[in-house]
C-alpha cells in the first residue's frame, strides 16, 4: 500500500496540480485544481483511478480556479484551505478578471482545515499543517508514508512564496517554514506550487531566503 502521485501543471502560471491516489484502493484526490479541468479529468482517466475529493492548499486563482466547477460536476467534497482564506475564496471571480483567467466561482469547503487535522485518500493519511504568510489560510499536506509533501506556494526550490499580495505577511511565512517544514525529515520530498520538486533538507541548508546556517 502506498500513496502515488503525478504532477500536472495547469493555467498560464504553470501551477503544479497533483493527482494523488492510494495504490490499495485506487481512490484519488486532486491537490490544487487551479484550472484546465478537462485536462485534469483526462489525467484521472489515464491513471484509471477514482476521484473522490478535492484538496486545496490556498485560494489563489491558479490553485483554486477549477475547484467549484469540478466539485459541482462530479459531486465531490472539498477539503481545505484554512478559514483564513475566506477572503480569497470570495474574490475568485475578481481574481479571474484581474489575471484574465476563465471565470472562477467561489466555493464553500465541505471541510475547513486547521493545524493537526488529517485528510484521508483511500487508505492513506495526509497530515495537515497551517502555514500562513503567502495567504492567511494556507495549509500543506504531508504524507509520512510516501515521504512527500504538497506545500503549495509556501516553499519552492531555491525560493519562497510571495507576500506582497493582500493579506500576505513575510514574517509569518518565514516563521511557518521554520516551524512547520524545517521540522520534517531532511529526505522529505516536496511538490511546490510552481517549478521542480526538492527536499526539505536541501532547502533548509541552501535556500537563500530561509537557510538554517546551523544545519
Quick structural gist:
It comes from Paraperlucidibaca wandonensis. The chain has 215 residues and is of the alpha+beta class.
Q: How would you summarize the topology of this molecule?
A:
Layout: E1 3-10, E2 15-22, E3 27-31, H1 37-47, E4 50-55, H2 61-64, H3 67-74, E5 78-79, H4 86-90, H5 92-98, E6 118-121, E7 124-130, E8 139-143, E9 148-152, E10 155-156, E11 159-160, H6 170-181, E12 189-192, E13 198-199, H7 200-206
Folded structure, characterized:
The chain has 215 residues and is α+β, with helices and mostly antiparallel strands. Helix content is 25%, strand content 28%. A 6-stranded mixed beta sheet has the order 6-7-8-9-12-13. Strand 3, helix 1 (37-47) and strand 4 (50-55) form a beta-alpha-beta unit. The protein is globular, with a radius of gyration of 16 Å. The relative contact order is 0.15. The model has no long low-confidence stretch (mean pLDDT 96). Keywords: Hydrolase, Metal-binding, Zinc.
Amino acid at each position: 500500500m502506498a500513496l502515488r502521485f503525478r504532477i500536472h501543471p495547469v493555467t498560464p502560471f504553470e501551477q503544479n496540480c497533483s493527482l494523488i491516489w492510494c495504490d490499495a484502493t485506487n481512490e484519488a484526490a486532486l491537490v490544487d485544481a487551479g484550472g484546465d479541468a478537462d485536462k485534469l479529468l483526462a489525467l484521472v482517466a489515464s491513471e484509471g483511478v477514482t476521484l473522490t475529493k478535492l484538496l486545496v492548499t490556498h485560494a489563489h486563482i491558479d490553485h483554486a480556479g477549477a475547484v467549484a466547477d469540478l466539485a459541482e460536476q462530479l459531486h465531490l467534497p472539498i477539503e481545505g484551505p484554512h478559514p483564513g482564506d475566506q477572503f480569497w475564496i470570495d474574490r475568485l471571480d475578481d481574481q479571474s478578471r484581474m489575471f484574465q483567467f476563465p471565470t472562477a466561482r467561489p466555493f464553500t469547503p465541505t471541510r475547513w482545515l486547521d493545524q493537526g487535522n488529517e485528510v484521508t485518500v483511500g487508505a492513506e493519511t495526509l497530515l495537515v499543517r497551517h502555514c500562513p504568510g503567502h495567504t492567511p489560510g494556507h495549509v500543506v499536506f504531508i504524507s509520512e508514508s510516501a515521504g512527500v509533501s504538497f506545500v503549495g506556494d509556501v516553499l519552492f526550490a531555491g525560493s519562497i512564496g510571495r507576500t506582497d499580495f493582500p493579506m500576505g505577511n513575510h514574517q509569518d511565512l518565514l516563521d511557518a517554514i521554520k516551524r512547520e517544514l524545517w521540522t520534517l525529515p531532511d529526505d522529505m520530498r516536496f511538490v511546490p506550487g510552481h517549478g521542480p520538486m526538492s527536499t526539505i533538507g536541501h532547502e533548509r541548508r541552501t535556500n537563500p531566503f530561509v537557510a538554517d546556517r546551523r544545519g
